[in-house]
Design goal:
The chain is an alpha+beta fold and 151 residues long. The protein contains two helices and seven strands. The strands form two sheets. The chain has a five-stranded mixed β-sheet with strand order 1-2-3-6-5. The protein has a two-stranded antiparallel ribbon with strand order 4-7.
């Protein structure tokens, strides 16, 4: 018998899909990228032409023993995903963070073969300015987690 070992890819995709759905449903639709600036906000030369937007980054997970009787070692997990909110101003980055957070926290992600608890806010950073790029950009960060176990 082969032991089931947890993989976070499906959870990461579920968070990305949820954030994209939330952003698309805002009064003024926004965009979310998969580890990169969303294509929808890039200008002709690859530069950012529209703010605000967010980027979803998988951060991996903490795994621990699952049900031994089902040979599912390391099958329970706390996958963590970071969402970075970017704006031309501090207010834009903070505004988008304030739009997404209450719409994702408490939701239940749909992941095939898994039972996933509600999304929880794991960590947050308020908006701050990145002076290493020109023009300056402001960013804020939320990290989300949801307990996941084999269904």
């Amino acid at each position: 018998m082969t032991a089931l070992v947890y993989s976070s890819r499906d959870h990461d995709n579920a968070v990305l899909a949820a954030v994209r759905l939330i952003c698309a449903g805002l009064p003024e639709p926004m965009f979310a990228g998969d580890g990169d600036v969303p294509a929808e906000v890039k200008g002709d030369k690859g530069n950012v032409a529209q703010y605000p937007y967010c980027v979803v980054y998988p951060l991996g997970s903490s795994t621990f023993d699952g049900p031994l009787s089902r040979d599912q070692l390391d099958a329970d997990a706390w996958p963590t995903t970071q969402v970075t909110f970017n704006g031309a101003t501090r207010e834009q980055a903070a505004w988008l963070q304030d739009q997404v957070r209450p719409r994702i926290v408490g939701t239940f992600l749909q992941v095939a073969g898994r039972s996933v608890g509600p999304v929880r806010l794991h960590m947050e950073l308020p908006a701050s300015r990145d002076t290493t790029v020109t023009p300056y950009v402001y960013w804020a960060v939320d990290q989300y987690r949801a307990f996941s176990s084999p269904a």
